[in-house]
Write a structure and sequence with these properties.
Chain lengths: 345, 252
Amino acid sequence: MRVCAGRTAAWLALAVVVAFYPLVVPGFWTYQIGAQSLLFGVIALSLNLLAGYGGMVSLAQMAIAGAAGYATAYFGVNSTDLGIALPWPLTVLTAIALGTLFGAVVGAISVRTRGIYCLMITLAIAVGFSLFARQNYSVFNGFNGFAGVRAPAVAGIDFNEPVPFYYLTLGVAAVALGWLYHFSRTPFGMALQGIRDNPRRMRTLGFDVIRLRIAAFALSGLIAAAGGVLFVWYNGRISPGAIDVQPTIDILIISVVGGMASPLGAFVGAVAFVLLQNFAIDLISPDRFNTLIGLAFLVVVLFSPEGLTGIAQRLMRGLRGAVRAERPPGDRETSTEEATARRIS
Amino acid sequence: MSASDVNALELVDVGRRFGALAAVSNVDLTVAQGERRALLGANGAGKSTLFNLIAGDFPATDGSISLLGRDLSGVPARERTRMGLRRTYQNSSLFAQLTVADNLFIALRGVRPGRFSLRRPHRRGDEMQRVVALAERVGMGGWLDHRVADLSHGQQRQLELGMALVGEPQVLLLDEPAAGLSPAERTHLLALIVGLPPSLTVVLIEHDLDIALRAADRVTVMHNGRLLVEGTPGEIRANQQVRDIYLGSQGN
C-alpha cells in the first residue's frame, strides 16, 4: 500500500513539475530543452514499446518519424511549390496514418528476424529511406527537403510560440506515455510480452506470433509518427539530414540511456540527450560531441543495462529496503488476499 | 460415425529426421477419446520429439497425424491449440517475469478471440474469474500475484498444468510433469492428473514408472525412435523386453 501511495505521489510531483515548468524558466529552456526533449521522448517511446515489451530493437523509428514529418510538410504548409495543402487536422491524420502504415511495412519486412539481424534490416530500411528522400525531387524535394513548415494556430493559440508548443508536446507525450502503461496490461500488450520471453510457447498457446509482432510495429509506428509531426513543427523544416544515420542512432541512444524496459525511460533518456547536446559545447569542442555521447552511453550501459531509470529504480528499492528493515516484521508483508486483490485491480 | 468413435489422436507411420538422424520413425499410435495413455522410454527414445510433432512445434517428415479426425498436415501449432490440443513442456516453459495470474491470462487469451484487444480486462470480469478458478484448480489460488520466477519448481509445474487446462481442452500432452519434484509434490501432481475430467484425453510422458502406471489405462513404450510395445500397465510390467531395456536388470 505504502509503495503504491509513494508511486502516486512521485507521479503527481512529476506532473506538477512539468506542468509549471514553462512558467518559471526562460523561453530557451521551455522550447529547446523542454519541448525538444518531449518530442524526442515520444519517438524513443515508440522504440521502448517494441524493445521493452516486444524484444524487437528497431533502428527505423526515426525514419518513420521522418516520413510523418515529410507528410506533414507535403500535405500542409511549406515554402516550396511542392505538396497539397490540406486543412491541418487532415494533414496530421494523413501523416500519422502514413507513419503507422510505414511501421507495419517495416514490421512485415523485419519481423522474422531477431537481435542483430532485426537491427541490421531496420537500419537498412532507415538508410534506404534517407537516400531515397535525398534523391527524389518530385515528392521529397531532394537534398533541400521542405522548409517553412508551421504548426497550426487553433482558437487563437499559435502553436509556433514556445509555451503553447511546449504544452502541445507535453500533451502528446503524456497521452502516449499513459497509453503505453495501459497497453502493457491489455491482452495485446501481455501477449507481446509473452512473445518477447518465449515465442515458441506463445505459438503453442494459440497466438499468431508474426501478426502480433507486425501489429506491434504498426502501433509503434503510430507513436513515432506523432513524434515526427511534432519534430517537423519544432524545426519548421525537414530534410534528408534529419533522418540520416546519426539521428537514427540518436533515438537508440536515447532509449538505451533512459532505459528500454520502462516507458518513462524514453523521456529520461531524451532529457539527458538534449541537455548534453546543448551544453556539451561549453565543455568540449562541437566536433567532439559524439565522443562525449558515446562515453556517456558506455558508462550508462556498463553500470546499468536498464539505463538511468534502472539506476533510479535500484536506488528506490535500496531506500525502501532500508525503511522496511527499520519497521517491525508484522508490518512488512501484505496478506495474500490483499496482494491478489491488488493484482486483479 | 458418432463423435466419440473418432480417435483423439491417430498417428500413421510418423517419422522425423534431423539430417541423418532419425529421431522418430514408423510410429503408428492410436489414442481413443478419454483415454489415459502413458508414453515410456529411455532418454533419447523420441518421446518429446513425438509430442513436438503432434503439437506442431515442427512438422513430421513422414506419415500423417490426425487430431479428433482432422488431418493436421500444414496446420500451424496455434491452430492445433485452438482445436483443443494442449501441451506442457519437459522444462517449465513459463513467462518467468510475469505473475501467475498473467501467465494464466495469456494462456486463456490464446484460445479465445480478442488476442489483439487493447482494452484492459475488467477486474471482476469473466476472464479474471476464470483465471482465479484455473489457479485454484491446480492449487495455485493463493499465488496469483507472485512472479513466476519466485515460485518453487513444484509450483511452476502446477502452473504449467494450469496453463494447459485453459479453455476447453480435448487432448492434453503432458511432458514429464513430475520431473524434478519431491515425493510429496509428485503425489500432489499425480492426484491433480488423476482428477482431470474423464472426457479429457491425456498422453503422459513420464520417467517415474510408478506415476505412469498408476495414471494410465494403456502404456506405450518407445525405444530408439520406434514403438517397442503397447499394452495395459500390467502387461507392460510383465514384459521382459521392457524390463530389459527400460528398467534394466533392477526392474521388479
